[in-house]
Structure formats: C-alpha cells, structure tokens
Amino acid sequence: MTDQTTYLGMSLSIEENDVENREYFQHCSTHRFHLQSCCACGLLRYTPGNACPWCGNLELRWMPVEGRGAVHSYTEVRHVVQPGFKPHSPYLVLLVDLDTQKGIPTEHEALRVVGNLTDADGKLASPEVVKTVGIGTRVRMVFSDIEPGISIPQWTIDETAEQPKQAWRFPEG
Amino acid sequence: MTIEIGIDPSAYLRDKYAIVGVGETTYTRGSGKTTRAMAVQAVRNAILDAGLKPSQVDGMLAYQNGDACFSTPVAGDLGIHLNFYMDIFGGGSSVEALIGVAMGAIEAGMCKTVVIYRSMNGYSGVRIGWTGVRAARPVEGDALHNRVYGWTSAGQRYAMSFMRHMYDYGTTSEQVAAVKVAHSKHASNNPKALYRKRVTVEDVVNSRMVCAPLHLLDCCLETDNATAVVVTSVDRARDCRHVPALIAGVVGRACQPRTDMHLQYGPVSTSVGHYARERLWKAAGVGPEDIDVTGSYDAFTFTTMMQLEDYGFCKKGEGGDYVSNGTIELGGRRPNNTSGGALCEGYTHGVSMVIENVRQLRHDVDDSCPVGPDGHKQHTFDYREGGCRQVKDAQLSTNLGWAGPDKGSALVMRRGTR
Fold it and tell me: Which of A21, A45, A116 sits opposite B149 (nearest CB)?
C-alpha cells in the first residue's frame, strides 16, 4: 500500500513499489538513521538507490549510521516557492558532510545529507537560530515526525560537539 | 576511478557541419500564444533566415520539460516532411547537445537538414521558478529527499555550489554582480531584449535576497518565447543565405563522475566544465585563449562565472575576478552573452545564446547600427548605451550550457566562408 501524508501543504507519497525509499523511511520513523551498504565493497551510499555507485553491485544491506557531521554548504531561503514554508521563512537547507565515510573513497567525496535546520524536536528553526549556523557548524541528526510511521531526517546544532569559533556565513552588507 | 575521456580524433566532425539559420519570437512576459504557435513561428523564421524553404528541412529536434508541444504538429503546420525527429526531456545544456545529435543524425544518413527548437511559456504557463502549478505536484521518489526540505527551485538547488565557491575561493557578491551589469549593458544595445535597463553592482547586491547567495538580480528572467536554429552539412551551407557558423567542436550533456543532486562527488565548488573541457578543446582544435566571444549560460550570475572558470578561461578560483575585470563586457577581451542573455534578453533554455553567437560570427548582429547599401549593418563598435554590440572581427565563439553543477554541454563555433 502506498504511504501518503501531507507535510507543509505538500502531498507526500511513498509508492508501494519504491522499496528503497520505503525501507529508508521505515528506519527514519524509528529515529534510527540507516543507509544502504554495498555487499561487495562495503561503501555506504546516499540517497537510497538501486546499485553501488562505485562497483555496480546490486546486493545491499541496510546499516545504522551515526547522524553527525558538519555543514558543507547551505542556502538560506527568504523567497519561498512552496507556500507551506511561508510561515517558516527564512529557513535553512543544509548540505551536511557525515563524519562517517568522509573523504572516502576519494578526497572530495562524502555522504552529503540534506536537511533543514531544526530545533532538537525537529521543528524548523527560528530566525534567531538560523542566523547562527553556517559552513563548519557541527550538527546532529534529529527527525521531524510527520505522522506515525513517517518521519524525515533533519539537522540541529550539536550542543555536545566542539563548534568552530565562527561558522562561515554569507556576508551581508 | 579512472574514466577514459579521450576519443579517436578521426571521429571528430570538426567544421563539417554548420548552423545556417536562426530565428526567434518576441521575448515576452505573457505571449498570449500556445507553445505550438510560437514554435511554428520561430522554426519558420530560422528556416527563412537560412534562405531555405520548409520543404528543404527533413529533420527536427525539440526539448522540453513536459511544458511544450512536440515536433510533429510543428512540422505538420509548416509542411515539413520529416525523415527524422526526436523530442527529448531537458532544459539548459540541451541545445548544444542536440546540435551534436543533429550532426550525428545527418552523418548517419537519417536526414539532411535539422531544425532544433525550444518553445516555452516560462512566465505565463509552467513557470520556470517552480512557483504555481509545479510547487503543487506530489512529492515522491527522489523528491522525498529534496522538495520535502523546501529545496526545489534551480536557485535553491544550485545555491549549495555557489555558496561553497564563495567559501573556498573568497568569491564575492559584488564580483558576480558584474555578470548582470555586463549583460545589462549588452541588453541595452539589443532592441529584442526584454530588460534593456543598465544596472549597477549596487543595484544587484541591494536587490532583495531570494535564497542566499542569490539576490533577485542574480537570477534570470522568466519569459514566454520560442527559439530555433538550423543545422546542415557544410556542403549544403554554401547554398544558404549567410556566412555559415561552422561547428568546430561539441560536448553534449557531459557529467561529473557521479551525477546526483546531492553533490556526493566533490569538490562542490567545481562544475562539470572541469571534466568536459579536455574533450571540448581537443575536438575544436583550439583553446580558450583563441575564443573571441562566449555564451556562458546565465541562469544565474554564478553559473556564468563557474563555467568560464571550469572550462579554463581563467584559473580555478579566479572566476570572480575574470567576470568583474572588464573581460566579459563588450569592448573587453572576450565579451559574454552579448545579447544580454537569460539575465536580460529572455529565457529560452540556451538557444538564444547560440543564436547570438551565430550572428556575431556572421558579423551581422541585430543592434541599432545603420544598415548599409549592401543590406548589412554598418557596425560602429561604439558600445555606449543604445549603440553597437558587434564584437570586432569575431572568428571563434564558445557556448557553455548549464543543466546543473554536475551536467552540461559546450559548443565551439568558427566563422566560415561563403
């Protein structure tokens, strides 16, 4: 059965035959982040897919992955395209390098996991908090619970990590 | 991972094919026409510009994003008897790739002369910025990992690469604003351009923020229009009306080693030109230093800058300086998008930038210069507002088409002889 729900005015649907996304979001719904790992070469991959990007192998297993990392890049959205985001503007979209598998198998590769900046409960961050995050900020994964059984991974400031003296922010005049 | 990027030079078709006709409709915000009606008009203009009749064209290629009419009704309307046609999915970078595909189709004996078009109501129909009907589409499949985060429009998506470029190389908003400034100057000398007002760096950086680092004036227009080019062999080009724009080399939809929206394969501040440029310059037999005029796709000020840098027009990391030191302005060493491009002339997923360079190579750009007794423009090379936009003695041009930081196309054209 296709899972369907509504989130910020968007109709979300995880098709019955989309087994990769179904399993990904099943793990998310229990707040345990999992990624696919190649049975041949062992590399993890994101987003969920159908073969190993490095060796082409089809066999995979789902592995728990620690949701910690640092902001690699970001955008701060002020002009909202999707109407449901309007009450939450400005919001951040973060491209986060996971600590796990960073620089593997080559220097500039990483598991770069996208999410919004949220508070620890997975609610989109306030404008005051948005101002404090930039490239280099240490973040940890939390989840936005959309409805029982459907959650999406998000990022919040990692209070336990040592933060850079000043995260790099887009300079505004 | 090692990827074999070289090909046998005997496979190159350098200077064996040419663009012989170009045409467009008026750039508007609110065309009041169907995409079919506009396509017919642009295709007809391009064929007539070539000095051909519709019955002399037998191939057609079109691209769209589920937002335009297909080739067959356009051919039907114009009485074009097709031996070959294809409608493909895509936006920016499609036109350069399809020029290569047209060469291949002719080389394979499938047809003799191909018209390529893009027709879109990008303002009044399916909006390119993803507002309206697009934003309402259900979120499923891959979109569960992007649109669900309010990461949807081209600007929002590419901002990751732009922001990281600023971080890695110290590129500033003021530097990339110079792209908009240059293109606005060019547009002020282009009677066809929708936005002909010259702007300043301050105008750009003081315009409202859309999604950092993109201000409103860092973003291109959304417009309604159709555009078309005609490709044929150099032998047939001799019977056409204009000096042909020979196709020296083409790279079609080249990709980074791993193509994905989430930029797993870095550096994130490097775009596909870094991987495609060796093919391009080898195929064309020239290098960036030989090029007189460029058409680096300006969906955003940043796309122009990043591509010029990654295709080797300057050193990696120096794109901000390259686009702000006068090089890309008319009168500079290598002007970019002399029509005003997508930032100022109108948005048509790249065809207009190829059209402009064809006209540059003909030495017959349609600016406000007077027409002489030979029927050609008497270019003054005075680039002040409302004046000339012809590049003096343009011999070689390059178009750099952007489909994303991870995929793109490129084209080198050379002025031919009659």
Answer: A116
